[in-house]
Amino acid sequence: MYLFADAEIIDGVARAPYTGDVLVEGARIKRVAKSPDRISVEGAEVVCGGGCALMPGLVEAHAHLSFTNMQDLFESVRLPVEEHLLATIENAKLLLDQGFTSCFSAAAAKPRLDVVVRNAINAGRIPGPRLRAATQEMTPSGNLGDLDTDYMTLPEAVRFTVTCDSPDAFRQACRRAARNGVDTFKVNVSGDRGFEEWGAGPDATVITDEELAAVVQVARARGKKVAAHATSAGSVKMCVRHGVDVIYHAALCDEEALDMLEAAKDRVFVAPTVGFPYTLVHEAQDFGVEHDDATQASLESELASLINGVRAMRERGIRVLPGGDYGLFCNPQGTNARDLAHFVNLLGYSPMEAIQAGTAGGAALMVMDVGQIREGALADLLLVRGDPIADISILQDADRLIGIMKDGVFHKAPRADTGGMCLAAE
Ligand SMILES: [Zn+2]
Description:
Blueprint: E1 2-9, E2 18-25, E3 28-34, E4 45-48, E5 52-56, E6 58-63, H1 73-78, H2 81-97, E7 100-105, H3 113-122, E8 130-132, E9 134-139, E10 161-163, H4 167-180, E11 184-188, H5 209-222, E12 225-230, H6 233-242, E13 246-249, H7 255-263, E14 269-271, H8 275-282, H9 293-315, E15 319-320, H10 338-345, H11 351-366, E16 381-385, E17 401-406, E18 409-412, E19 423-425
Helix pairs in contact: 4-5, 6-7, 8-9, 10-11
């Protein structure tokens, strides 16, 4: 038993923090007491929470644990599966070290990387967040992630995409992925920046209603979730029409797309993945990438549209989640908590709203009993030195995460020498 005493509790749902005690027994939160009530239990180890915030562990809604900060999509192909698995294991630990106790995957770079790592985490063999394991990206020919040409076809298992060009092909890819044990089917419904020459830029909707319907049909039959790469307005609308669970990017929404998202707001999530476009615009040069003027202008215009769209979604009460394509070259793994600061600095969220989206909000997508400090919930908790409501950026500093608990077990236990913490038996 652990008793967190006298902490500022950010519980994931209440509008304001409150001072109180939290008792953890086994994997779950047993009691929450709001000051002046106190909890006193014999035999509990007491963690003094003075000067600290106690909050639910963070949820990353668009994780790619098998992405290795790549700049070129072929990097992922060249990485043999043995090294790729090691990198994925390292990223899983890194995310947990950074306070992410849950990750909803938005695609694995090889067929079973997510599944194997999820199973090893669940079995206690390696440290890592709770993981909803995804497929590779299922995508049509001539779209984001297609690395083939007329003269060269790569084996499917080494790419981060599976090519599907008919409803039957999507169905088969989904069923094979189900056989592999995934939780989520990832499908690319729109194009992306950089693929304009193929007619597959961000404003293009590249698959048909019948193809997306096939994916959703298999998902419903097998109890899986559907996650979609959908940047264009048309792709967002197609996702809402077919009941996709989480829509990524949604950068080019028009009024009709926003209206449809609002009408479906009880069943759909949007994760805009603002981290990657933000760093592409502002920080790519730090990684040796210089955009030409036209590219820079188009990146800036997409980012501006994304920001305006998400501000409108927030006002309409649409559930928007942090998660930002971390694992690409200028937006590296482990910096994921920047997304909460982006929500505050760019998207009009208060720090409390951003934390709620990144905890209880993400947990609703995970469909797991985490993301809240509530009696009976699973004890995934962060003890943070300082006040993240006053400065959301402190969540990016792992040194301030003096306690990281998952399932009632400390991944990182508070110590007396990390800011006056005590861990003592009462
Ligand atoms: Zn992604």
